[in-house]
Amino acid sequence: MANISSTYYPQSGKLIVLGAGESGVGTAILAKQKGFDVFVSDMGMIASHYKVQLDEEQIAYEEGTHTEERILLADLVVKSPGIPEHAPLVIALKAKHIPVIAEIEFAAQYTDAKLICITGSNGKSTTTMLTYEMLKHAGKHVGLAGNIGKSFALQVAREQFDVYVLEISSFMLDDMYQFRADIAVILNITADHLDRYDYKVENYVDSKFRMIQNQTKDDYFIYCLDDPQTATGLKRHHTAAMHLPFTQEQKVEFGAYLTSIKDIIINIPNSDTFTMRTEELSLTGKHNVYNNMASGLIAKVQELRNQAMKESMSSYVNIAHRLEQVACIGGVNYINDSKATNVNSVWYALESVSTPIVLMLGGVDKGNDYEMLRDLVKNKVRAIVCIGKDNTAIHAAFEDDTELIVNSSSMKDAVQLASHLAQKGDTVLLSPACASFDWFKNYEDRGDKFKAAVMEL
């Protein structure tokens, strides 16, 4: 059965899509296919390739404005996760009791596929891609969507996958109400995006735990037993789904754990035990042991053979912009971790690098607390090169913990400064802890410019 009752939301009438990015355009195409009168509205300018898609589908749209009187006539609104709850238009829609939902919520009504849903402050993309590649390698007919890949809604409209692996952000979860995950995964929860949650970490935790809402006893909930915020959330949020925890700190009967000799053990009911040495994993670092445990549990639930799991976990190559090896120049290693947009991601990056580090840090600060990085910076970081417009908080946080903190005027300037500060055997690590949109279009643009500047050295 579909993961939402098809009678919960209007099944016809006027459907407005707010935001004409990947998810918005996919939603519009699916909605038109299902018989809705569709209109797409974007406050910004719509990318040309999305306009071509909308024109080909003969879907009406506007850009550079929201025509409020037209939008407030909607029977159903699907909004971009980037539009916050406190936006005046969203407030006005809710005051008129017009349902405002996420693309994932809308599209889930129209598929019977199994939905594997992965969230967390860090490691979402790596775990999602590893899971997808593992299932694909094992011969499953699997789609990849959510925060990554093609629009879920577009795939529901045009593909017939048996299972989807969905990377889900808290912003998406905020607009999901009736959706049900067959397998829900919470990797970890650390303070992030608190500007969207009244600067209260418990609100952010509650958002992440929307992942398990509506689950039944036939579903699975996979989570990190070692994560303090997840432990706190578990006290407030309950599910009938089977719990499969993963941990590096204790032994569990069902779930995944690490032995004293660094073997990953995965056990689920009615299945044979999976064992793999951590040194055999293609992804290094403590955080990637957690990511592999989560993906391994999903694979066992999906009844993959142990050999197929091992083949994927030993050969997987990480996604771009996540601890991506760029080059070794003059004995200095350059790593692109542009996707590290919060402090916890940077902690994982620093933890996984064994050489002295020249750290490239900065951008749009989201209220970061750098305290958790202090010991790693003291012990591992030779110098910090700041990128972005305002790096006052970085200077204040680390002035006593590293010998040198310098500002840069561009990515090219930052890479050149880092190359001069680094010594043979060091690593230059771009791991910014911040959003990118002061100097760059997005974290991909930031990472691409870093790679280009490195190759010019």
From TrEMBL:
Q: Where in the cell?
A: Cytoplasm
Give the enzyme class: ligase
Give the Enzyme Commission number: 6.3.2.9
State the reactions this protein catalyses. UDP-N-acetyl-alpha-D-muramoyl-L-alanine + D-glutamate + ATP = UDP-N-acetyl-alpha-D-muramoyl-L-alanyl-D-glutamate + ADP + phosphate + H(+)
Residues the entry annotates as binding ATP: 120-126
In terms of Pfam families, this protein maps to:
Mur_ligase_C, Mur_ligase_M, MurD_N
Pathway it belongs to? Answer: Cell wall biogenesis; peptidoglycan biosynthesis
Q: Which residues form the signal peptide?
A: none
List the keywords (alphabetical).
ATP-binding, Cell cycle, Cell division, Cell shape, Cell wall biogenesis/degradation, Cytoplasm, Ligase, Lyase, Nucleotide-binding, Peptidoglycan synthesis
Domain Mur ligase central, by residue range, is: 118-297
Q: PANTHER family from the entry?
A: UDP-N-ACETYLMURAMOYLALANINE--D-GLUTAMATE LIGASE
Q: Which NCBIfam families match?
A: murD
Q: What is this protein called?
A: UDP-N-acetylmuramoylalanine--D-glutamate ligase
Q: Which gene produces this protein?
A: murD
